[in-house]
Structures are given as structure tokens and as C-alpha cells.
Automatic annotation (TrEMBL):
Pfam families linked: TPR_16 (PF13432), TPR_19 (PF14559)
SMART domains xrefs: TPR
Renumbered ranges of TPR repeats: 68-101
PROSITE patterns: PROKAR_LIPOPROTEIN (PS51257), TPR (PS50005)
The name this protein goes by in its record: Tetratricopeptide repeat protein
Keywords: TPR repeat
Superkingdom, natural source: Bacteria
Amino acid sequence: MSRRLHLLAALAAVVAATLLSGCSDEEPGAESSASALLQTGLDQLSEGSTAAARGTFENVLVLDPDNQYALYNLGLIAQADGDEDEARARYDAALAADPDYAPALYNRAILDERTDLAAAIATYRRVLEIDPDLAAAHMRLGFALLHLGQTAEAEASLARGVALDPAMAEIEAPSYE
């Protein structure tokens, strides 16, 4: 499985834990069906069956058009496929359903890094207000700040990211070109 698909599977697994709380205000049968389909889609992603997962998440949206988890995962798939416009639209739709959904905010910030680094930094800060223990967000914020020459704050953010997850010490800074 490619590194990109491993990343998709890992990110989707983070979302899986959130699904336990339910996914919509639809009638109970629709909620149950949507939850089952979401789990199927996550399983498909973890197996590397991206096309099947895409179809499954689209089916979730038939049952629950505002399902933030299906929208988010469709954004992940689009982002992995290099379709930034589609990814951005899916993340924005997930955020319309829940403006404080940290995974969608985080990935939205990654998309913004090349075109509007200041907006990405603001979004990473918002992500960290919601989830202060998200090591990856500390790292991305630190790298962005370092790129802008804000060394002290950057080093503090990078150190916090590594303290939260020592594996982050191996992460390379993204390119901002």
C-alpha cells in the first residue's frame, strides 16, 4: 500500500472513534444505516480500496446529506488524489455541519499553506484551541512560523508537537513554494 493510502487509512481511523456518538438527526433506521456504511467505508479505506470507499461515503450522503464524517473522508480521498478543489469543498461542507470539527480544519489548513500561509496559521491555531494535544497541528504550525521567521514561537510549537508524539521528530517541514 502506498504511503498516501497509509496516511488516508490512519486519518480515517482517527475519525472512526468519533462515529460512536452517532452521525445525524435522521430517523433511527437512517442513522443506523449511515453509521454502518461509514464503518464499511473506513474499512475499505484501511484496505486500500479507495474507489469503493468513495462510493460508500457517497451513499452515506444519500441517507444523511450533512454527514460531516462522510464529507470529511471524501475530502481525504480527493486530497490524496490531488484534487484540492474537491477536497476543499468537502472539508468546507463538513465544517458547515460542525465548525469545530478539528480533522477537517486541520486538513483545510494544509490545503491553504501554499496559497495563504497566514490563513493556514490562523486555522492551525484554531485547531489547537479545539484540540490542544494534536501533535501534527503543533508541527505544521511550527513549520509555518519557522518559514516566516518567527523562530521562538515556531520552536515552542515544534517542541510541543514532539513532546506529544516523539515520532513527530522524524517529520520534515513541508515546502511552501
